[in-house]
Amino acid sequence: MLRELLARLSELEPPATSHVVGRLVVQAISVQYFVKYELKSHLDPSRDGCQEGFHCVKHAVNGQCDHEHEWSCGSCSALDRLCDEIGDIVNQSRQRETEEDAELASMTACLQRVGGQIFQKVKHAARGVWQHARIADTMIESVNNPVTKTSVIFVDLDHKQKILGRKLVENQMEYFGKAGMSLPGAMVMSAPRHDGTDEARDGNAESVGVLLHFVDMVVANGAQDVFQVISCLEALILVLHDRFPEANRMVLISDNASVFTGGEWIPWVIKLTRKYPHLRVSRYMNTEAPTGRDMLDAHFSFWNRKMDTFVRKDNAIQTPDDLYSALTDEGGVANTTTLLLGVDSLKASLFNNAKSSFSSKIKSGVRRIHDTVYE
C-alpha cells in the first residue's frame, strides 16, 4: 500500500522532488521486507537492552528496562520516519492548492491508517514473542525443579476448525463458517520419565526436554462456547489424573481464541478445583499471538490424513460418532487419547443463565490479563 501511494505521489510531485520520492520508495521496500520476513527473528526476548540489530521486546510491551530509550530499535523506528517523510511531502503538495486536493487528503488518511496497522502488527508480534517466552521460562523452571518436576503438567488448549460432514475424499476440513462438528484438543507437556538408561529414554522428549501427550475430544452436541470449554476441561482433568497420577497441579495455556480470551470461563475453574482437588488448575497463561504451537497444529493437520484414509475405505463422516470412529480407526494415533463427549443441555442452559449476570464484568476485567494464578 505504501509503495502504491508513493507511485501515485511521484506522478503528482514536480521533477525537482522526484529523487526524494525515489528514495522513499527504496525505504518502503526495505521496511516491507523487514516486517514480512525478518521481524520474528529480529525479536529476541532474552535481550533486555537495545543491542545493535535486535528489538527490545520489553520496551515494546511497555515493560521497564534497565536503560532509557525512545524507540525499541532503529529498524522499527525506520517505519515511523518513513511515514513522517511521506506525510511531509503530501502536506507540502496540499499547500500548493493543486487540483488533486481531494486525492491528497485521501492519501493523508490512507497513510495514517496503513502506518497504524503496521505498528499494530509489530507490537502484536512483540507481545506474542514475549508472552511465549515467559511460558517457556515457567515450563523450564518447573521441569528443572525436583519438587515440581513430576507434580506439575502443562496443558496447551486449542480448537481445530470445526469439521464438515463428508462422504468424498475432497478435503473440507478448514472453512470459516461455524456449523460443523467440534474437535477441541490438548497437548500435555510433562517432564520426561526415564530411569537414566538409554533404553528408557525417549529421543523426542530428551531433545526438547518435555514429554508430549495429546488428548482429542469429539463433542457430540453443543456449541463451541464457554460451557463446552468447561465440560472438556472437566473430562481432561479425569483423564490426566489417571495418566499422570503423580501430578497434582496443571498449568493451562492457550492462544488468543475468543472462547478462551473472553475470560468468562476463568472463574468456573475454581469450581472444578473444588470438585477435583487431586488435580487442580494452578495457573492459566495465554499468548496474544499463536506462537510456539507447531506441534499441536501438526497433530491437528495429521487428523486430515487420518480422515481421508477412513473415507477411502468407503466410510462416511456425518456425525460425531463417525468422526470418533475415523480418529480411532486402526488403533488411532500413538501417544494420543481420543474421547467422545456429550454436553448436558440442561446444565448448559442453567450455566448460560448463571453467567449472563456478570459476563460483561468478567470480560472488562480479564480480557487483557495474560497470566492468571489460582491460589
Q: Categorize the overall geometry.
A: globular
What is the number of helices? 13
Order of helices and strands: HHHHHEEHEHEHHEHHEHHE
Number of domains: 2
Q: Please tally the β strands and state the result.
A: 7
- Helix-strand category: alpha/beta
Strand content: 5-15%
Largest sheet: 7 strands, mixed
Q: How far is it from the N-terminal to the C-terminal residue, by CA?
A: 49 Å
The Rg value, from CA coordinates, equals 26 Å
List the strand order in the largest sheet: 6-3-2-1-4-5-7
Determine the mean pLDDT. Answer: 71
Helicity level: 40-55%
**Contiguous uncertain segments of 5+ residues:** 173-178, 199-208
Layout of SSEs?
Elements: H1 2-12, H2 18-42, H3 57-60, H4 74-95, H5 101-144, E1 152-163, E2 181-190, H6 203-208, E3 211-219, H7 226-243, E4 249-254, H8 258-261, H9 268-275, E5 280-286, H10 294-312, H11 320-327, E6 336-341, H12 345-355, H13 359-366, E7 371-373
Parallel strand pairs: 1-4, 3-6, 4-5
Antiparallel strand pairs: 1-2, 2-3, 5-7
Helix pairs in contact: 1-2, 2-4, 4-5
Please describe what this structure looks like:
It is a single chain. Helices cover 50% and strands 14% of the residues. Strands 6-3-2-1-4-5-7 form a seven-stranded mixed sheet, sandwiched between helices. It folds into two domains: 127 residues, no CATH class; 229 residues, no CATH class. The chain is globular, with a radius of gyration of 26 Å. About 4% of the residues have low confidence. It contains 13 helices and seven strands. By secondary structure, it is α/β, with parallel strands linked by helices.
